[in-house]
């Protein structure tokens, strides 16, 4: 990666839907050269995907967006937890973290009853010893992920 690739990434993080023509203008390349660089970064894994950020309050299906701090039981491996957790309905992200907890999980639940069911499943099926849940009230974003 060079300086121009870094500029391309910065532009794409602000607007992943920008046309290759406009992207090229922003970074000083032709549309074809900008497209080639983006495709190369996708193939090499630098760009892992493109996404749509949805305001949870605008998506009435979302219900609650929650962040769950997870501490695993001593007999549960990280791999076991990740495999089970990612299959549970509502879980959108599983992040191995440093600090007091083992994982931070982002999830959606239709209502408090669905959240309760998810937490019970995590403890019963995924080897969770303790959890601490926070509910997202609002998300502020500058458009970058």
Sum this structure up briefly.
By secondary structure, the protein is α+β, with helices and mostly antiparallel strands. 40% of the residues lie in helices and 21% in strands.
3D architecture notes:
This protein has helices at 3-14, 20-27, 31-44, 78-87, 112-125; strands at residues 64-72, 91-96, 103-109, 128-135. It is an alpha+beta fold and 145 residues long. The protein has a four-stranded antiparallel beta sheet with strand order 2-3-1-4, covered by helices on one side. A hairpin with a 6-residue loop joins strand 2 (91-96) and strand 3. Helix 2 (20-27) crosses helix 3 (31-44). The mean pLDDT is 90.
What is the number of helical segments per DSSP (H or I, 4+ residues)?
Answer: 5
Order of helices and strands: HHHEHEEHE
Note the quaternary state here.
single chain
Intertermini distance: 20 Å
How would a crystallographer describe the biggest sheet?
Answer: 4 strands, antiparallel
Detail the poorly predicted runs.
Answer: none
The strands making up the biggest β-sheet line up spatially as 2-3-1-4
Strand content: 15-25%
**Alpha-beta classification:** alpha+beta
- Kindly provide the radius of gyration, computed on alpha-carbon positions and rounded to a whole number of angstroms: 19 Å
Mean pLDDT over the residues:
90
Shape descriptor reads elongated
Query: How many strands appear in the DSSP assignment?
Result: 4
Fraction of helical residues: 40-55%
């Amino acid at each position: 990666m060079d300086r121009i690739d870094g500029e391309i990434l910065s532009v794409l993080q602000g607007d992943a839907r920008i046309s290759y023509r406009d992207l090229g203008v922003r970074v000083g390349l032709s549309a074809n050269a900008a497209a080639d660089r983006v495709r190369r970064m996708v193939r090499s894994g630098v760009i892992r995907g493109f996404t749509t950020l949805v305001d949870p309050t605008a998506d009435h299906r979302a219900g609650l967006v929650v962040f769950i701090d997870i501490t695993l039981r001593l007999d549960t491996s990280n791999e076991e937890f990740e495999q089970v957790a990612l299959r549970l309905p509502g879980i959108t992200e599983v992040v191995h973290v440093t600090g007091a907890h083992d994982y931070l999980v982002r999830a959606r639940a239709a209502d408090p009853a669905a959240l309760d069911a998810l937490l019970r499943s995590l403890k019963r099926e995924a080897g969770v010893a303790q959890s601490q849940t926070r509910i997202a009230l609002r998300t502020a974003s500058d458009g970058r992920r």
